Amino acid sequence: MPGDRPRAEPIRRRTLVLLRWVALGGQLLAILAAWLIGVRFAVWPALALVGAGAALNLWMTASPARVTQSGATWQLVFDLVQISALIGLTGGMSNPFALLVLVPVTIAATALENRQTMAVGAVTVVMISLAGWQAAPLQHATLDLAMPPILQLAHWVAILIGVAFFAAYARRVSGELAMTTDALFATQMALAREQKLQHLGGVIAAAAHEMGTPLATIKLIAAEMQEELAEALPDRTDLAEDALTLKQSADRCRDIMRSMGRAGKDDLQLHAAPLHTVLEEAAEPHAGRGIAVTIRLTSGDDPPVIRRDPGLIHGLRNIIQNAVDFAETRVMVDASWTADQLAVTVEDDGPGFPAPTLVQLADPFPVNRRNDRRPGYEGMGLGLFIARALLEGTGARIRFDNAAAGAKVTILWPIDRIRADDRAPLRQNPQIT
Questions:
Q1: What is the mean pLDDT of residues 278-306?
Q2: pLDDT tier at 350 (50, 70, 90 boundaries)?
Q3: Is the pLDDT of residue 198 over 60?
């Protein structure tokens, strides 16, 4: 089973109450229907068990207390005891509704931690065993409702197998959904960060523009003060020095704001860039990690100018980071294009992807890939999952393979989905390294 996942509220109060009302309604209908067709059993104790469940639901509805892990566990244990006792009063293993004891343990596996789930599963095994052992047989005037002992034993074994299977299956599915949710949240956070950085460029450019006028005024007044002090108070050199310092500080502020404004305008306006520039931007954070990252444009035509999309850059950066993490000496980033398609291939000279995990590499689940330079490494696959989500959002298709020596990731775009329009700036033929 996946590891425990902390939850502020494991199950909503409304969900527990609603599920219990549905179960109690079904139990009451089954009791009445069985009695009407002539099946005889201890009806009043059975109705009392239904009433106990209704009383708990009414208390849950009125109580303002928050549902915790332990509180939800005890409620599911109560449900198990209630339904197991009801099954024991109505035929035990010969009761076709005996399989409903699987419901609480399935809910526990979906919403609770491992320890609580195992506790609910153990209570399920004990209670269904007692219900089968101490069962009160059903009576009917003309029909024989007794089940042969061998079939009762088979039914009991089937329920025990169901407890283990349903708990493990529900636990696995809920764990995968939780990790997928976490990975998507990480993707959204990464995109939001990239977009904030781009918007910050516009803010900086606007601030630099607005600060230009007051800085020029300060500089002008400081220069006039310096001249007037030199004429009126030639002995007060300290005041003249203060005026000079004020003027120099205004000049320094002007230079700083001019530089920031230039950078901000560049960030704001650079919505498109040559292919090589975008690849360099994606690889730049990993250039100084001891692994040679080489970018090559293998087509002979002029490289296309593509959209400088934050999601595209961040996705490529994650792919390159994964290659650098496992490479021995080098990582090759090759780009080629035709009139219809752009292809980017990231290849390293590391141990490659383990063959059994190739089909699930971009899933947000544990991926073990040997790396001698990172002993004890156990990746969660979130980097590749985020990369795939971001790149597919730009229209790309991703393929994971093993090359002759190392891992290979191929990213394919329809050229119309990634090429910038004719108004895009910075169309040039960069130097290929």
A1: 84
A2: confident
A3: no
pTM to 2 decimals? 0.49
- Sorted by sequence, the CB contacts under 8 Å of residue 253 that are 6+ apart come out as 211, 215
The residue behind tokens 């219900």 is 131
Evaluate whether 276 touches 295 at the Cβ level (below 8 Å).
yes
Cα 305 to the center of its chain, rounded Å: 32
167 within 8 A of 105, measured Cβ to Cβ: yes
How far is the C-alpha of 381 from the C-alpha of 362, rounded, in Å? 6
Contact at 8 Å (CB) between 206 and 267?
A: no
Q: Are 156 and 93 in contact (CB under 8 A)?
A: yes
> DSSP per residue over 320-357, as a string?
HHHHHHH-SSEEEEEEEE-SSEEEEEEEESSS---GGG
Bridge partners for 411 per DSSP: 344, 398
Span 49-90, pLDDT tens digits: 999 999 998 988 887 777 788 888 888 889 889 988 999 888
Per-residue DSSP letter, 100: G
Query: For residues 99 and 110, what is the distance between their CA atoms, to the nearest angstrom?
Result: 18
pLDDT grade for 428, boundaries at 50, 70 and 90: very low
Q: Give the H/E segment covering residue 124.
A: helix 114-133
Which residues make Cβ contacts (< 8 Å) with residue 105, sequence separation at least 6? 76, 80, 117, 120, 121, 124, 163, 166, 167
Our CA dihedral for 307, 311, 315, 320, rounded to 10 degrees, sits at: 60
